[in-house]
Amino acid sequence: MDALASDAAYKAIAASQFSTVSPENVMKWDAVESAQGSYNWAPADQLVAFAQQNGQLVRGHTLVWHNQLPAWLSQELPSMSSADVRALLKKHITDEVTHFKGEIWQWDVVNEAFNDDGTLRDSIWLQKLGPDYIADAFRWAHAADPKALLFYNDYNIEYTGPKSNAVYGFAQKLKAQGVPIDGVGFQTHLDTQYGLPDLQNNLQRFSDLGLKVAETEVDVRTTLPVTAVEQNAQVAGYTSTLQACLAVRSCLSYTVWGFGDAYSWVPNTFPGEGAADIYDANLQPKAEYTALQQTLALAVAPPARGDRH
């Protein structure tokens, strides 16, 4: 939202190049309730208004996470009873979803609740409430806005393995219990050093459970400075992940996590890596942008001339 307010070129790209938007931080708990009982919806409301002005849908991000909790909450949680923690979490979800009722297309209800080995993350929510907090979060969100699509969102589930299998099994269990989970979000933060995931097959198996899927935080980082070989790998990463979404009927959206390298989260988190976005630091489109554009064009292209079928 800072860039949207201060950088005219960034704002113009955000308004013209995308059909959906997702907040990086302004809907997280520490942003909306930094002081207990005092809500600041203004930045998030500005994003929703921006989307409405530009004919865009909004992905809400995120209601339940172990990070970016307000300081007052982090201090109080360890000494609170389970009943009080449950009431507090229910109130937060209900208040936020109610505030944006009718304005959010997809909510990331629960974010990053699993470890890479497939076990549930030992978060304060798991410690205080047990694994049922996940199902409860979906129930509370659905009660507050029955029309919003409700997603579980996580990283490193693009590749088939312990984490992806655990999320698959858990989602299957929630569906069987009648929990109102509509979909699973695959963050899709890729790195050229790890190769490409079998993403289409993974999206499809979740879809076969009767779930919608989305790629929610796509970027493809690499070591700096970027070589031609690395950029080719980045282009392949973007192309293959978009193709995977387009190939799976229930894949609803493809969201890049930021679009300009100057504003990327990657360099601060992964020292020595970057160039993960589809626009460069000067907000000029890169080969990755062109690759996505071409992939989308091919997906809706008419039959070639001379094709008699």
Q: Average pLDDT value?
A: 96
Approximately how much helix is present in the residues?
40-55%
Structure class: alpha/beta
Give the N-to-C terminal Cα separation.
Answer: 49 Å
- What string, H for helix and E for strand, traces the elements in order? HHEHHEHHEHHEHEEHEHEHEH
What does this structure look like?
The protein has 309 residues and is of the alpha/beta class. The chain is built from 13 helices and nine strands. The chain has helices spanning 2-6, 8-16, 29-32, 42-53, 71-76, 82-99, 124-129, 132-144, 162-176, 199-207, 228-247, 266-269, 287-299; strands at 20-21, 57-64, 106-111, 149-154, 183-186, 189-191, 212-223, 251-256, 273-274. Strands 1, 2, 3, 4, 5, 6, 7, 8 and 9 form a nine-stranded mixed β-sheet that branches. Helix 10 (199-207) packs parallel to helix 11 (228-247). The protein is globular and about 55 Å long. The chain starts with a helix and ends in a 10-residue tail after the last helix. The mean pLDDT is 96.
